[in-house]
TrEMBL record:
Pfam families: PcRGLX_1st, PcRGLX_2nd, PcRGLX_3rd
Signal peptide coordinates: 1-27
UniProt keyword Signal, yes or no: yes
Chain ranges of the PcRGLX/YetA-like N-terminal RIFT barrel domain: 39-111
Domain PcRGLX/YetA-like C-terminal alpha/alpha toroid: 492-893
Entry keywords, A to Z: Signal
Domain PcRGLX/YetA-like central beta-sandwich stretches: 129-486
Protein name: Tat pathway signal sequence domain protein
Length: 896
């Protein structure tokens, strides 16, 4: 059948007839009639107008037919002041209209924060940011800065001018590599320096408000060897004197011999025309505390240069030589000039600032504190450069260096891995303990929940994306300006829509709703949802779940005897998205709109999408199951790398790196040809069939479907849609539908082979890694009656009685695990089928896990730790998702 707008509306309307009373709220309205476009209310995520303009990019969803690809928009405030927006599509509805728009603005912060409205515009200011591209470079002029990007060589950014003055030059990346760990040898370590080498630089996005320049390459040593691929994105906003830098570092070394001693981004600052006492150094420490010095200090001397001179130096103003007291002026050659400074955050709770005159001389301890906000500045009275690292202390060990400030050219280096810290050691934490057969490995799994296999516990191919900022000033910034910049770096301003708008558009499915405390039972569940998030959000700090490779993740399970999370016990340590922790946070954000929830979800998305997933090598692009080390488990699976965990952040922020991760997953299923998930448990090894793999209808297909659905809505590529629909059809065509469990899968066509046996193969994990959530989204946009019938049968029968299962499936196999988690499947079936008995059954099933969850967070009287008795992240994530969906789908049917 030809896919037309009319058929799309007709099928969506038919689908809505299957929904229950609350289901009608969720399914049909946005999909069955063209909405009349009205202004969309926007607000700043953190609830306040940004006082530092860094520029912002954000996403907004639409109903079908509401917005066309070439529509233009402005942002207007309560005073009717407006600024133009740069817009581009992120996703499409089947009719070609826009499902998600991305918007960028460098000037949104100029508007009042009251009553911000997104409106269509007949025409926009056509004065785009100036971009001139040649064979060798890309020149960008945003109205305040002229920036020259290189297309080859080591220097990514060649020069930055402001008002005709050169403020910065020669931005490059550095990796320091050490041939042994710091802790295991007394011999002299050999270190080598690896510098960025560009292999491709391009304009990725360009318009009236933002230009994005993307450079890709690797690091090279003196022997021209290559390691450590990188992707570096520079965001240039109109009339904004700050560049956002998104730096993706990929590890492709041998963890047994290559120990990273430093990862940094460096920028040169010309200083040669300025006296030493007119060169200014600043570090933002804790909260609003600023370390304020000059390379050659004139305060605290035995002889007073004069109050005016001292005040000028503290403020970073230009000091004229003749204004200095004659005796002090005569003694200037004997006042030390400190050319090197560093701020080292080697732990999440401790930093120190030190300085020295030059190489070969001792360092002086200058200041210490707890948690630095991670900004360093170097400049002159007529301008300078600040560099900042987002999540500076959270991602320790980090470091900010100012070097050679007493020479003609100083240098600022933002170290994402601090050279002052011990070298990075990514070796696995044990030697395998004799687990050289699958049988032994299974025994190990039984005792520590760790799925070990030699050769699989490797970091080769994992990545880390960091966010940095380069700000340029035409005079020495005040301490208030610097602290404001530092705070802005840590919580970049983001425009967003309200939860009720997201709910109305149903772009993330129709199985979640807004908070509702209208009854005592609803209020109790809402309160518990809040308490559960608060507990985990605070546990991050209480348990110091921080560090370069760890920040963004949480632990899997708690050890009540030791009163610690099981950081050292196999599969009970780092969570790695197990049982949809990411989804729990994102659905909780969708319904609450809380900034603290968004920030936790953002950190988790950055971590789980980069560190827990391979981007290079033999396991790419699969993810690793939970382990003591994020990459340690031999289960390399689609359920961890799944696109459904990234969709939320991508569409809400239009983040290009997250877009890369989504693209990685489109053909991820091909990796299953040589990384067989069930290789340790299959009684008969699979015979290799080119282009075919064994795929489960749950964790595997759910991830495949999420990747293909996302790719299709981003591109409307008909071949991807055809593969997705063929996979849906061939699941529904199985003898037992979803209960058939798995089959051989043709990657190119998307078709599952039809099984001949009516055997039931059900895993309790099938529906707890995003399957219900992505099926809901797909079914709303690509309705298929036979597929939905098979899906609703699975939802209805998973927790059904033996008799119901016997009648429907011809077997009484069963009761399956995670019954309370599957209560949301029962609720979905109840809503779609308008079945009150099923609705009440859903609540009975949901209540079964209360003992496992414990009562609430309490303070342990012995240790003083805040603990939640019986807590595990599996239960927390699944309880949260199930509560959200049951409240919405069958909330009026709670049992007495």
């Amino acid at each position: 059948m030809k896919f037309t707008r009319r058929n799309f509306i007709k099928d969506a309307a038919l689908l809505s007839l299957l929904s229950g009373p609350l289901g009608n709220l969720t399914a049909a309205a946005p999909l069955t009639k063209k909405a009349i476009h009205q202004a969309v209310a926007l607000h700043w995520l953190d609830g306040k107008q940004p006082n530092i303009p860094l520029g912002t990019t954000f996403g907004v969803p639409w109903s079908p037919g509401e917005v066309k690809p070439h529509d233009q928009f402005v942002l207007r405030d309560a005073t009717d002041q407006k600024v133009p927006l740069q817009a581009w599509p992120l996703a499409f509805w089947p009719d070609g209209s826009i499902k998600w728009s991305a918007f960028a603005s460098g000037r949104a912060a100029q508007l009042s924060s009251d009553n911000l409205r997104l409106e269509k515009a007949a025409a926009l200011d056509k004065a785009d940011i100036s971009v001139v591209e040649s064979t060798d470079d890309i020149m960008v002029d945003n109205g305040l800065l002229r920036i020259q990007f290189a297309k080859s060589g080591q220097r990514l950014l060649l020069n930055v001018w402001q008002d005709g003055r050169l403020l910065a030059k020669d931005v490059l990346l550095k990796v320091i590599l050490q041939d042994a760990p710091d802790t295991e040898t007394a011999a002299t370590w050999q270190t080598t320096e690896w510098i960025s080498e560009i292999k491709n630089c391009r304009i990725e996005n360009s318009g009236n408000e933002r230009v994005l320049v993307c450079a890709e390459g690797y690091h090279s040593d003196a022997k021209e060897q290559h390691k450590f691929p990188f992707v570096l994105r520079f965001y240039v906003y109109r009339d904004v004197p700050t560049l956002k830098v998104l730096y993706t570092f990929l590890y492709d070394a041998d963890e047994q011999t290559d120990f990273i001693k430093g990862i940094g981004l460096s920028v040169a600052v010309p200083l040669g025309d300025t006296e030493l006492y007119n060169r200014y150094v600043r570090f933002v420490g804790e909260e609003d505390d600023v370390f304020t010095e000059a390379v050659q200090g004139l305060t605290g001397l035995r002889r007073d240069p004069g109050a005016a001179v001292r005040s000028q130096q503290i403020q970073g103003k230009r000091i004229v030589l003749q204004e200095i007291n004659e005796r002090v002026r005569k003694g200037l050659p004997y006042i030390p000039a400190f050319g090197d400074y560093r701020l080292s955050q080697l732990h999440d709770s401790a930093f120190g600032i030190s300085k020295r005159t030059a190489t070969g001389h001792s360092w002086l301890q200058a200041k210490s504190g707890r948690r630095s906000n991670g900004l360093a500045y170097l400049g002159k009275p007529d301008g300078g450069v600040a560099v900042g690292i987002r999540n500076f202390w959270q991602s320790y060990p980090a470091q900010l260096d100012i070097s050679q400030a007493a020479t003609d050219e100083g240098r600022l280096t933002a170290w994402l891995w601090a050279p002052q810290a011990p070298a990075m050691d990514l070796r696995f934490y044990h030697d395998g303990m004799g687990q050289d057969t699958y049988e032994k490995q299974w025994e190990g799994l039984e005792i520590t929940y760790e799925d070990y296999e030699a050769g699989y516990a490797t970091a080769h191919g994992v990545g880390r994306t960091s966010e940095l900022y380069l700000s340029f000033f035409n005079e020495t910034p005040s301490t208030a300006q610097l602290t404001a910049h530092a705070h802005a770096y840590q919580s970049p301003a983001l425009l967003t829509v309200a939860p009720d708008y997201l709910f109305a558009k149903k772009v993330f499915g129709a199985n979640w709703g807004l908070p509702d405390r209208s009854t005592e039972k609803r209020r109790a569940l809402e309160d518990r949802l809040d308490a559960l998030f608060t507990f985990y959000n605070q546990e991050v700090d209480r348990r110091s779940w921080y560090g370069f490779w760890n920040y963004g993740d949480v632990m899997h399970a708690y050890d009540t005897d030791r009163q610690v999370w099981r950081y050292d016990v196999g599969g009970f340590a780092w969570d790695n998205s197990e049982l949809s922790t990411d989804l729990w946070l994102w659905y909780y954000y969708l319904r609450t709109g809380r900034s603290d929830v968004f920030r936790m979800g953002e950190a988790m998305c950055r971590h789980t999408g980069e560190v827990d997933v391979y981007h290079l090598g033999k396991f790419a692009p699969l993810g690793s199951r939970h382990n003591v080390m994020h990459w340690g488990c031999s289960a390399k699976q689609l359920r961890i790398s799944t696109a459904i965990n990234r969709r939320f952040y991508y569409y809400l922020t239009a983040d290009e790196r997250t877009g890369d991760l989504l693209h990685e997953q489109v053909e991820a299923v091909r990796r299953l040809e040589d990384v067989v998930a069930l290789r340790k448990r299959l009684e008969t090894p699979l015979l290799a069939q080119p282009g075919k793999v064994l795929v489960s209808f749950g964790t595997d297909w759910g991830a495949i479907a999420a990747a293909w659905f996302t790719a299709w809505e981003r591109t409307l590529d008909p071949s991807i849609k055809a593969r997705l629909q063929e996979s849906m059809y061939s699941i529904a065509n199985q003898p037992q539908g979803f209960f058939t469990g798995r089959s051989l899968f043709s990657i190119d066509s998307g078709r599952f082979e039809r099984e001949q046996s009516r055997e039931i193969r059900v895993s309790h994990l099938n529906a707890v890694f995003g399957l219900p959530e992505i099926v809901e989204e797909i079914s709303m946009v690509l309705p298929d009656k036979k597929f939905e019938s098979a899906w609703l049968a699975y939802c209805r029968l998973y927790n059904a009685s033996d008799e119901e299962r016997r009648i429907a499936l011809g077997t009484t196999e069963g009761k399956f695990n995670l019954r309370s988690s599957h209560a949301r499947l029962t609720a979905l079936a109840a809503s779609k089928l308008r079945d009150k008995t099923l609705a009440r059954r859903a609540w009975t099933e949901f209540s079964e896990d209360r003992g496992a969850m414990g009562d609430a967070a309490v303070v342990n009287p012995t240790s003083g730790n805040v603990e939640w008795p019986g807590i595990s992240t599996n239960w927390a994530a699944q309880w949260g998702l199930t509560a959200i969906q049951c409240l919405h789908l069958v909330g009026d049917d709670q049992n007495d």
